[in-house]
């Protein structure tokens, strides 16, 4: 898996509440903005994939397959 050692270290520093939020996001088709902020604020070594149509005001986020698999396995 891509960046597994860095992900393990990052995951170990997460609180139980953060881990639950991340697990819910891994089960979801599209993580919410709070999860995107959590990943950015905690310097997750594997970033989100974002997309936005020019006419939309909000970004749509998805977890990379590697990040989704890592979180699901924890």
UniProtKB/TrEMBL annotation:
Q: What is this protein called?
A: Aldehyde dehydrogenase
In terms of superkingdom, the source organism counts as Bacteria
């Amino acid at each position: 898996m891509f960046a597994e050692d860095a992900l393990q270290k990052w995951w170990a520093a997460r609180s139980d509440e953060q881990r639950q939020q991340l697990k819910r996001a891994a089960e979801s088709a599209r993580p919410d903005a709070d999860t995107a902020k959590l990943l950015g604020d905690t310097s997750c070594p594997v970033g989100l994939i974002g997309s936005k149509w020019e006419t939309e005001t909000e970004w749509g986020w998805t977890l990379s397959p590697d990040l989704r698999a890592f979180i699901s396995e924890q």
